[in-house]
Amino acid sequence: MKSFSLPDYARIKRVQSFQELVTTPFADGVNALCWERALSGDFGEIVDRLAGSEQITTLDEAFLVALPVSAAGAVAVGRLVADLRLLREHGLAPSLDLIRGYARDEDASVVRTDVYSFHADSAPEPADTYLCTYHGPTSEGVRNEEVRRRVDVPATRAALLELYGGLDDDGFSAFLAEHCYDLHYEPAPEAQPFSFGVGNLWRIAIEYPGCPVPPCIHRAPDTAPGQSRLLLIS
Asked: Residue 99 sits in which domain range?
């Protein structure tokens, strides 16, 4: 496994515990909290036990604890169950997913809106996103200063206006929001995306009315054929 180094970026803050992760407010521009962890156990064994063709398979606790695994696999199962419970006890609704691939927005005429595109999560009220990759390619982030909204690229905005068939007014803004076009970002040529790392539990800021910081811009990684991810997200 490649060693992980937290990016030297003022918007990311390292925390030392789950309690610190859930209680530290986003402020002073910080929009991502990372609880770095070197986890024990064989998470790859869990993935190998799960044959199937579905792009996304959601795993619950009962299924996990019933898996026939080795001692190292059992350690990994224990960690997964513990993390699910930590988030549920905090009032969240986590999902543990084996991901072989997400649907791609192949038919996008102007702006791709799938999770492989750099984007911000959003909600109508205060909320955050929690995520941890236990196995496989990890989520990627990019610095806010190295991206711009795709709808702010003049040529893209003009194409979207043509698709909308109206004026650049409040109705157009509502159209952009309805289709999530305004949540996707174009990285600058010099942008340097960074890995979220394996085993680390992140809490990232999302876009909602009154959010005190910019959202954390991130994306799902590309996966090669036959490659799978084990991801916890809430």
From this structure: 14-20+28-233
